[in-house]
Amino acid sequence: MKSLASYYFLLYLAVSVVMPYTSLFFSEKGFSNTVVGLILSLWALISVVSQPIMGMLNDRLSNPRQILLVSAIAAPLIGIGFLYFDSLGAIIVISVFFVWFQSSMGPLSDSIAVDIGNREGFSFGSVRLWGALSYAIGAFVTGFLYERYGYEHIFWYYLGVNAVLTLFIFLLPKAKPVFKKATIIEQISEVSRNKPFLIFVGISMLAFMSVSINFSFLPIYFKELGFDKSLLGSAFAVAAIIEVPMFWVSARLSRRIGHYQVLCIAAAIYALKYLMLFAFADVYLTLVLQLLDGIAFAFVAGTAVEVVESYSSERTRATLQTVFAAITWGLGGIVGNAAGGVMVDHLGVQSLYLILGIFCATASILYAVTRKFAQGYKVET
């Protein structure tokens, strides 16, 4: 558990120094909001392809540490290329390779953590909360750092943290996951027959797509409404710091009222936050509303991973986690970020949050409606 906690701390510290600021990084390079949205949509498209392939490769090789090690080294080295090229064509080429490795690390890590947690008797949330803590620290510090010194150095910071993360990958448990190997065709077939999983993915896409869009466009929200951008890091930190105790609460609440009920509550909280951002334009209210964001994310992130695990067999653990991430964050991000950029340019950033509120309210209702159907499902291993 200590090894996993340390690993998650560094994993999300690396995420915190680069991912919240990518929209501003490309905006500072002179790209319009529409083009920024399309670049981020491309990132999501790449993750849709890469995550399931990396997941299936992981399940075939039976050596998750090996894939994580390659990804932790390759992603930051490739990301440095963004600093030296300004043309859209070069950005697209670099994006393909950078996102291929970077986007797979989260779901692969979650698959390992859930599997080890089930064997050793601790919850995923008790490990994941350390990632929330490091994200809060990193986002808070870098918000002020980048506003003072510029956003052009973010990938150097990412490289530095990943260098340390690489060392900690060797400390992860050496025991290989226990499952029966399956061919790629068998893995695809098993996923396609898993109807409760596919329904869960479809509902979650509404909520996760909204979260992904908010993550990408909150910096633009600050910029368009004239907020002090030095507070942007504080906004992400406020959300992340409340996640730390909320991951603990989420694990216990799930055991008491059920996973789907927790997800229903989380989607409703997201809907409230987005509708408030639509109705009011105040930087300090926005910072307060980030508390709701942190609560909802802890409920969603900790619970969804365990729901996906409950639908997986011994030979498709990583596959289902990466497929879930690819569709909800990836495909949802493709549609959402592309449409979000156009909407911001033509309707204004506040109108975007009205749509996000409607999406999350719908997801909350659907989680409640499908709960009984999902609870009766038993996976065959």
From TrEMBL:
PROSITE patterns: MFS. InterPro entries: HcaT-like (IPR026032), MFS_assoc_dom (IPR024989), MFS_dom (IPR020846), MFS_trans_sf (IPR036259). It is a multi-pass membrane protein. GO terms for cellular component: plasma membrane. Its main location: membrane. It comes from the Bacteria. Residues 1-375 form the Major facilitator superfamily (MFS) profile domain. It is found in: Cell inner membrane. One of its GO terms (molecular function) is lactose binding. Keywords: Cell inner membrane, Cell membrane, Membrane, Transmembrane, Transmembrane helix, Transport. PANTHER family: 3-PHENYLPROPIONIC ACID TRANSPORTER-RELATED, BLL5896 PROTEIN. This is MFS family permease.
